[in-house]
User: Which sequence fits this backbone?
């Protein structure tokens, strides 16, 4: 499985690099943003509280159309079964204005988490694919509130999580820089 | 169009999703009780690349409740049924509040699961035995026909090839 994960990682990295190169030549504005969100992650049958630093790079056209890549590292707060990490990388398209940003796209997550299914619990390592949506509301040019939600399909050989969904709902402050 | 989009997304999700239990797993009723290691209920991972040495389907120590491997290998329908029944029983046992009674229930569920797997193994062995006997019979008839009608090397070679294919089918179908 490690070979498979590495292969997918290399493929996504190359795709990302190609996309970044192609987009940066034509986009009107580049907009990096960062933040830390807090919220919940439900994977299997047990919810977790998560603190999630995240960053994104968006290319915005004059029409408001934007293409973005997001990286979010959900650090699960230990609750009797040790800590966990659910790292989510996503690509998105959306609309952005001076006050709002809305994006939606596919996501790929790499995780090492304590989890429970219907009958068994354990520490699970895996890869999950799904979709993610993010809405940012900016109060000033730089400062705003970011809210995101995602649904991933979690499945594989683990007896603990042979097939289930992972849901995340997070919100927190975000900072952005607009470069023309 | 929308249906194709959903189908595509589902296929992609399935393609990229994979996971593996790292180390030990335990019954859900033990979640939050200090988890692994306290008071039993721990199942050690078996299989390729796993840390556990003991097969998870065997009791590992006194007082510990055994359960299936923490990672599922693709199983035949008979063993799949055993596992799904066992999972159902484990869920029911998990609802029992009294620790002692819950352990008794989980032990009993495991005994049933083990018996079920043994029956599957026996059924598979019986099936293979019957199938191979049938192959032997067909093989003998084939050679007898060759001796009678076409006593050439190629005829006997064809019988041997068919016999090998028959045995392979037995392994695949039982």
Assistant:
């Amino acid at each position: 499985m490690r070979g498979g994960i590495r292969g997918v990682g290399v493929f996504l990295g190359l795709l990302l690099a190609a996309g970044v190169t192609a987009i940066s030549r034509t986009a009107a504005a580049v907009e990096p943003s960062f933040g830390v969100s807090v919220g919940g992650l439900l994977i299997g049958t047990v919810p977790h509280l998560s603190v999630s630093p995240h960053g994104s790079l968006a290319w915005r056209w004059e029409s408001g159309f934007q293409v973005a890549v997001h990286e979010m590292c959900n650090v699960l707060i230990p609750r009797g079964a040790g800590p966990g990490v659910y790292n989510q990388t996503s690509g998105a398209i959306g609309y952005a204005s001076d006050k709002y940003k809305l994006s939606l796209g596919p996501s790929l997550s790499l995780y090492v988490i304590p989890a429970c299914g219907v009958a068994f619990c354990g520490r699970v390592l895996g890869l999950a694919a799904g979709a993610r949506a993010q809405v940012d509301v900016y109060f000033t040019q730089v400062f705003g509130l970011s809210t995101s939600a995602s649904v991933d399909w979690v499945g594989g050989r683990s007896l603990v999580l042979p097939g289930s969904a992972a849901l995340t709902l997070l919100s927190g402050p975000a900072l952005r820089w607009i470069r023309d | 169009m929308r249906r194709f989009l959903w189908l595509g997304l589902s296929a992609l999700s399935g393609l990229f999703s994979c996971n593996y239990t790292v180390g030990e797993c335990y019954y859900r009723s033990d979640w939050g009780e200090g988890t692994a290691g306290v008071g039993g209920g721990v199942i050690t991972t078996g299989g390729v690349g796993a840390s556990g040495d003991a097969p998870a389907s065997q009791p590992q120590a006194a007082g510990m409740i055994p359960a299936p491997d923490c990672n599922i290998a693709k199983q035949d329908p008979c063993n799949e049924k055993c596992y799904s029944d066992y999972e159902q029983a484990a869920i029911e046992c998990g609802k029992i509040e009294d620790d002692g009674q819950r352990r008794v229930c989980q032990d009993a569920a495991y005994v049933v699961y083990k018996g079920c797997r043994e029956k599957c193994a026996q059924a598979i062995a019986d099936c293979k035995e019957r199938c191979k006997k049938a192959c032997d019979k067909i093989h003998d008839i084939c050679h007898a026909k060759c001796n009678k009608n076409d006593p050439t090397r190629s005829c006997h070679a064809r019988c041997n090839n068919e016999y090998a294919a028959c045995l392979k089918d037995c392994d695949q179908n039982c």
Q: What stands out?
A: Residues 82 and 115 of chain B are 9 Å apart (CA to CA). Helices of chain B lie at 2-16, 77-94, 99-149, 153-173. Residues 34-40, 44-67 of chain B have pLDDT under 50 and may be disordered.
